[in-house]
Protein 1
Amino acid sequence: MKLVAITGGIGSGKSIVATMLQVMGHKVYDCDSRARALMTESDEVRHKLVETFGKETFLDDGSLNRQHLSAVAFGNDEALARLNAIVHPATADDMLQWARQRASLGDRVAFVETALLRTARLDRLVDQVWHVTAPASVRIPRVMARSGLTAAQVQERIDAQRDEERIADGEQAIVNDDKTAVLPQVIRLLESIIPQQ
């Protein structure tokens, strides 16, 4: 089975590509949603979070105290690195387990949607990378419309993801600039890894 990463910066349209693939019947592992789930579902991850960030990391009902975690980790590079050192390996392990299951079910290809391909070291675990791109002039309004962030706040997030934005040698680009049709690009890439019979 081929395992393909779908990546790109904030507002580039990774989720649009992932949705297209799901509509076509392909399975997609969403790193963001699984990482959030593992923070509450995995006893090991919960224990490490409490040990590192305090018992107030979880609310009385057992749910993650996002406000506390954001206040402690974001804007503090050392704390963010500690958080990533807990969550990223757990997510990678969960993703590999999912990929093994997909392969055992006979899937010829499966996909992993991630904004942090290199940061989480997932680039080493996939066979191919599809990098979704769009200019900042398109991405900023997209993110503002869905999140309520200001243009400056979106630009800060784009700037913080510079290393993730670089398209490395061998990665396949998908242009999602609101002018270029995305579906034909996705179909072409699919046909390159799953030849039509």
Protein 2
Amino acid sequence: MNTLYDVFVAIRDDEAEHVKTMVACQGPQAQLTFKSPHAIESAVVFTDGVKPEEAAADASLSS
């Protein structure tokens, strides 16, 4: 960015992308076509019967 004008152009372009995203999110099929990057992909199976939070607690006690 060389000038203040460049900053405003970048902000304008960024906001235009936000508008496109919000329009897409309001579509009738949005829940079917978009997936959160934070969504759990598959179920976690505990083969030893210990839940991760219990294992973490045990590990912190032993150190």
Protein 3
Amino acid sequence: MTSVTVSPKFQVVIPKEVREAMGIVSGQKIQVLTYKNRIELVPIKPMKKLKGFLKGIDTNVRRDSDRI
């Protein structure tokens, strides 16, 4: 597990291995979330890059007979 230090300006550096694994580039927006007792950084992807990411997903949904 990699650890980072918070600077006096409350900044952190995302380690190179993490940036490369997640495809994070300079200037990219990242959403910051708090969940229970942790901070999560979620890269925001442009809509054009999301095109087709659900290709092949099973869209069949079982429904009760009274819900058709």
Protein 4
Amino acid sequence: MLLLGIYGSPRKGGNTDLLLDAALDEAQAAGAEVERVYCRRLKMSGCIACGGCDETGMCVLDDGMQAIYPYMQLAGAVLLSSPVYFYGPPAQAKALIDRSQACWSARMLKKTTPEQRKSFDSGQGYMIAVGATKGKRMFECMELTARYFYDALDMTYQGGLLVPGVEAKGQVAGDQDILAQARDLGRKIVAQAAS
């Protein structure tokens, strides 16, 4: 199984990077093939709503996102890791999510009936999210965004690891409990793919 890890943070070596590293390393040790994508390194624009993907399911913009689409199609699981910025993902991650409109169009072209569209057949999606506050609703928008991102990829959203109250860069490196939860998530992804 191919597990695609998407690093959504603009900050290299931050908390979401560390947690995603732990999860992916554990998944790889459990037998998954792992591919890593760093949103902060991608040279791409956001979706321009041109409608170019409506007829073909393929994005017409020729930029760094073209190298990512094949991984999104081949992956049996996708794990997005992102900090919370104003209750949502940062711009770099959101641009990648928005560009999955082409994947949504491809899904609509392939699954033409309402019954077909009720099933999600390409795998599972997960999320690691870290936020500075401890607000009760801090992760609601993140999870809604993740759910519809994975809908576009024809995947079910399976939840993940939501970590409140963490702000300092690298703070999770000193928290063995949170790191253990990330490793557990990596093992869970592989186990669910095998079942």
